Amino acid sequence: MNVDRYTDKVREALGQAQTEALQRHHTEVDVAHLLFSLLEQENGLASSILNKAEVDIAGLKGRLAAILDRKARLTGSPPQQVYASGELSLILSNAEK
After folding, report:
1. In angstroms, rounded to a whole number, what is the distance separating the alpha carbons of residues 2 and 92?
2. What is the pLDDT at residue 68?
3. N or C: which end of the chain has fewer CB within 10 A?
4. Cβ-contact 25, 75 below 8 angstroms
5. Which of these, 53, 55, 67, lies nearest to 24 by C-alpha position?
6. Contact at 8 Å (CB) between 8 and 69?
7. Nearest Cα residue to 35 out of 24, 25, 20, 23
């Protein structure tokens, strides 16, 4: 994954997704973390597109939070490092093509 090829907003979202995973004591960052982070961006493209499609953003964020809450987590201290899930890695790899 070559993050230099991504826009500032995508790099920001990836960083926030990683932070979200760490805060939740998850060992990997997956698509739900990234989408949640994209939806959190002020004036972000993802929210703009979904708003135009009349998607309930607050409801979607709530469902994503519920999905993230159900993921396995480490007990005790948060992990020192998190890794991209296989699904997220595949999506990002395809985005670079």
Report:
1. 9
2. 96
3. C
4. yes
5. 67
6. no
7. 20
Side chain identity at 84, as an amino acid letter?
A: A
DSSP 42: T
Q: For residue 87, what are the CA distances in angstroms to 4, 28, 30, 38, 53?
A: 20, 11, 7, 17, 25
Q: What does pTM read for this prediction?
A: 0.90
Residue 2 has pLDDT above 80, yes or no: no
Residue listed under structure tokens 């493209």: 45
Average confidence score pLDDT of the chain: 92
Q: Which of 45, 25, 23, 22 is nearest to 35 (CA)?
A: 45
Q: Which residues have CB under 8 Å from 17's CB, separation 6+?
A: 29, 33, 34, 36, 37
